[in-house]
Design goal:
Elements lengths: L4 E5 L3 H12 L3 E5 L12 E3 L2 H10 L2 H9 L9 E5 L5 E6 L13 E3 H9 L6 E2 L4 E6 L4 E5 L4 E4 L1 E4 L6 H6 L6 E2 L7 E6 L2 H6 L8 E5 L5 E7 L5 H8 L11 E6 L17 H12 L5 H8 L7 E2 L3 E2 L11 E3 L2 H4 L8 H20 L5 H23 L18
Parallel strand pairs: 1-2, 1-11, 2-7, 4-14, 11-19
Antiparallel strand pairs: 3-6, 4-5, 8-9, 9-10, 12-18, 13-16, 13-17, 14-15, 15-16
Length: 406
């Protein structure tokens, strides 16, 4: 195998999954992440499907992939998105996107932090925290990455996995516009504990794959359970005792619950009193809803409440292939409507890891390998970006069955 060194800007799930896949294939890799611990506060529970899950299977060592499966959510009553009224009556539903996702342990959902910590497992000093990418330059036979502290790193390939605000994309594709993504109150996130007593009292429909509840006044909640197949700490100790994974108790992720016309302060403007005031507003929205929905909101842990402003991109026409490429939100950030962002980043990582490994083995020209990844990404992901942009139908609580008239 020829010596190939890959630089990855960004230590999100896509960048770390790619690093794992390259390391597994014997390819040298270094990840540069702006946050010190590589953990962003951008949500809690990630809905997984076969696209993302198979990307993980392609990249992770067998024991870490098993840890992912065991710390994923128990298989729900139905793997679907469902819309309910405020009394938990079903209005409509649709199946999740992606390839067939069946078997005794299908891909379900996982806690974002747990997945990040699994993906960090054994990467060691290949991950450089507090190292924000600011730009790059081509060298005679590779690429040089520039970092915010004034240092540089050199490699054969640079992969931008640094999110929707990617500094690498901004230089490579300066015409790409970042678009604010209006998701209403669904930018508000919180966790509500799922104790055995709470779980026993919830209607089964609230434990489906992903649930949106709404009322005639415009109030809306999106909820998704995280109750792992095996307790997180127990699974980590049994399957991969050499890596650190924080224990996580079961919870219901709650998003939304903002009355129409109410403006939530920007993240930088939150004070110590903001969570309590926001929570009071959420309780008012669901005051006359089904007791189970109302109880989930009332039991929200205020320390987990935060606001995340989403942004998205439009599909970018094909660009000339170079030694600098992109994956995940850095090139196809989309509305959270169908829960596809992380899955598409992980799919990208699995494909790109395989292509770069083939180039390192001399089985494929390097630029041809990168071009194949980019073409596969555009062909598969861009239609999903378009589908996710229909927020009013799905994430807006107006879900209609596939094929129904507008």
């Amino acid at each position: 195998m020829s010596r190939l060194h890959v630089l990855i800007a960004g230590g999100g799930v896509g960048g770390l999954c790619l690093a794992q896949g390259l390391r597994r294939a014997g390819v040298s890799v270094a990840v540069y992440e702006r946050e010190g611990d590589g953990i962003h506060r951008a949500g809690y529970r990630l809905t997984m499907n076969a696209d993302g899950g198979e990307g993980l299977r392609a990249c992770l060592p067998e024991d870490l992939y098993e840890l992912y499966l065991q710390t994923s959510r128990k298989t729900p009553p139905h793997q679907r998105a469902v819309v309910l009224d405020r009394d938990c009556n079903e209005l409509s539903s649709a199946g999740h996107l992606g390839p067939p996702n069946e078997g005794p342990r299908p891909h379900t959902a996982i806690d974002r932090r747990v997945l990040r910590q699994i993906l960090l497992g054994r990467l060691g000093d290949a991950v450089h925290g507090g190292a924000a990418a600011t730009g790059f330059e081509a060298t005679e036979d590779g690429v040089r990455l520039h970092l915010a502290d004034g240092t540089t790193a050199e490699g054969d390939v640079l992969v931008a996995a640094d999110g929707v605000g990617s500094a690498i994309r901004r230089q490579l594709l300066p015409g790409v516009e970042i678009i604010p993504a209006d998701v209403g109150g669904l930018g508000l996130f919180a966790r509500s504990p799922l104790t055995p007593e709470v779980l026993a009292e919830l209607p089964d429909v609230l434990l489906d794959g992903f649930v949106i509840a709404r009322d005639e006044r415009g109030g809306m909640l999106a909820i998704g359970a995280y109750d792992p197949r095996q307790p997180v700490a127990e699974a980590a100790a049994q399957l991969a005792p050499d890596i650190h994974v924080d224990p996580v108790d079961p919870y219901m992720m709650i998003s939304g619950g903002v009355a129409p016309g109410v403006t939530i302060p920007a993240p930088a403007d939150w004070t110590a009193e903001t969570p309590r005031a926001v929570h009071e507003g959420m309780r008012a929205v669901v005051a006359d809803w089904h007791p189970s929905l109302r109880g989930l909101v009332e039991r929200i842990d205020l320390d987990t409440l935060f606001w995340f402003p989403f942004r998205r991109l439009d599909p970018t026409p094909a660009w000339p292939t170079t030694r600098v490429t992109l994956l995940g939100d850095a090139i196809h950030a989309m509305m959270p409507t169908r829960g596809q962002g992380a899955n598409m980043a992980l799919r990208d990582a699995g494909i790109l890891a395989g292509r770069l490994a083939a180039a390192a083995r001399g089985e494929q020209d390097l630029l041809e390998a990168i071009a194949a990844h980019e073409a596969a990404m555009r062909d598969y992901v861009y239609p999903i970006m378009d589908l996710s942009s229909d927020h009013g139908r799905f994430g807006g609580g107006g879900l209609r069955p596939e094929g129904a008239a507008s």
